[in-house]
Amino acid sequence: MALPNSLPPEFDRGVVTTVHQGECHVSGDVDLTFSTVLGSCISACVRDRVANVGGMNHFLLAEQSGSAKDRYGASARYGAFAMEQLINKVLSKGTGKKSNLEIKVFGGGKINASLDDVGLKNIEFVRSFMADEGYMMMGEDLGGNYARRVLFKPYSGRAFCKRLDSDVGANVAREELAIAKRRVVVAPPVDDIELF
Amino acid sequence: MHGAVSPGTKKVIKTMPKASAVSVLVVDDQQSMRGICKYILTQLGFKDIIEAKSGRDALGKLEKANVDLIISDWNMEDIDGLTLLKVIRKHPRTQAMPFIMATGRSDKEQVKEAISFGVNNYIVKPYDASTMKKRIEAVIGALS
Predict the structure, then answer these.
(1) Where are the extended beta strands (E) located within chain A?
(2) Which of A53, A61, A103, B82 suits a disulfide with A28, CB 3.0-4.6 Å?
């Protein structure tokens, strides 16, 4: 997909790494851009402002029942893990000090009636997580009836969010609906160590 | 179950422990992760759950409370899980205390290092109640 002309120049050069659902990437490369497309999903962009290291995750809390209201249910556990994983990766590549972190969050759109209020529940989760952990939201673009493309420069911390048209949104909705139907809520941890 | 931990002994609990009688110290610098762990422990029947928000906080709590089991995060800002384990294993009063390390990935080298310093077991996040039960029972015995 060609990037729009209105894109700030710094996003229009270097290497672009796509962050898919369930992934988490961290880098301190000045020329790198993380890119993702979000429907109901959430992406957090976390950066260590002193070390100039940052990362992006991309997760979907797919439960559509009332269970997402249970703050410690399977869905919320997965979200908390996705956030912790990104924060720990940035801390380990950066200064290790949480006070140096700046966090921006994106997504949580309502792009398909079949996905009910999943986007809203994702937003509730991420706001609650930020408040519980005492992090300040340095920037956000959440909710609405559209999909988004988010670009993030981990070195500078600059983020660019573009609202996508309904055709792209429909494709994103189909993909997210497939994930929700498969109920891929909690990825089984890689736990192949049998040392005990 | 207080009083069952005898410093210097390897087998800490010989009889089948009752979850409600086991005192657990949950150490994690993320409030949400402590909440999740506490929620799962409550599901498993544990009632005496103490929370520590850092490795340093855990050492303070251990001075004041009788603890039968520690479940600690690895990555923490002040004293990390491995350092906490080393300190606990050096202190005569806590050296035999059952210790489960929770972390985000199963890094074999990391696990080996933790084992060399006396960790009793290891749990990978995101975990559920059934995995937690297995790990706890592997350390303190089948829960009654």
Answers:
(1) 15-18, 24-27, 32-38, 42-48, 53-57, 101-107, 137-142, 148-152, 159-163
(2) A53
pLDDT in tens, A5-28: 577 888 877 899 999 988 999 999
Q: Which range, of A22-26, A47-51, A117-121, B42-46, averages the lowest pLDDT?
A: A117-121
Q: Which residue has the tokens 């923490």?
A: B76
Q: Longest C-alpha distance within chain A, in Å? A: 57
Its pTM stands at 0.84
Residues of A with CB under 8 A from a CB of B: 71-72, 74, 76-78, 80-81, 83-85, 88, 91-92, 96-98, 129, 132-133, 186-187, 189-193, 195-196
Using DSSP's 3-state secondary structure scheme, residue A103 falls into strand
CATH number for B36-139 (one of 3.65.10.10, 3.40.50.720, 3.40.50.2000, 3.40.50.2300): it is 3.40.50.2300
Structure tokens at A101: 């972190």
Please identify which residue in the block is written with the tokens 């869905």.
Answer: A75
Query: Are the beta carbons of B126 and A78 separated by less than 8 Å?
Result: yes
Pairing of strands A24-27, A42-48: unpaired
